[in-house]
Amino acid sequence: MNQPMTSTTEHHNEELIERLAYAGGLPFVLLAILLWLVDEELHPFVSIALAAYGAVIVSFLGGIHWGIAFIKNTEYQRLHLIWGITLSMLACLAVLMPAFSGLPFLGFLLITAYLVDRKFYPNAGIKHWLTLRFRLTIISSIACFIAAGAT
């Protein structure tokens, strides 16, 4: 049965979303630290793991725009669709690049995605998530930049 969400349910969902979002930032931090700690022969494996994870997250951020386009029929619907797939393609490119350039590229993609979200989230009615997006963008992009320094 579909019952309307209560404010308690909404509160629990927001808490869960925040916890999961911060948990999603942990691999960025852990893999960036690991790159500085492991022997050089393990660098390719760890850097590919970080680049792949970063690309998945960037694609996920693009997927949010597809979700917005499916739900909201706005003047920006086409832009949401185009931006969403563009993020995925650029993230794929970052994985194919050497780590010393691919990881910073992912960091800049994460920042760019946040800046675009600042423009489009308010119109989509999800402006309240921008603070969380900002924090996670700082964590993930800095991790990518620090990790690139180890390659």
Describe the structure.
- There is one protein chain.
- This protein has 151 residues and is mainly α.
- The protein contains five helices and no strands.
- The protein has helices at 7-37, 43-71, 77-96, 99-124, 130-149.
- It is globular, with a radius of gyration of 17 Å.
Give the helices and strands, then pairings.
Layout: H1 7-37, H2 43-71, H3 77-96, H4 99-124, H5 130-149
Task: Summarize, please.
By secondary structure, the protein is an all-alpha fold.
- N-to-C CA distance: 53 Å
State the share of residues found in helices, binned by percent: over 70%
Name the overall outline. Answer: globular
Number of domains: 1
Number of strands: 0
Helix count from the secondary structure assignment: 5
Spans of at least 5 consecutive residues with low confidence: none
Portion in beta strands: under 5%
- Using only C-alpha atoms, the radius of gyration works out to 17 Å
Largest sheet: none
Q: How does the helix and strand content classify structurally?
A: mainly alpha
Descriptive tags:
151 residues; mainly alpha; 83% helix
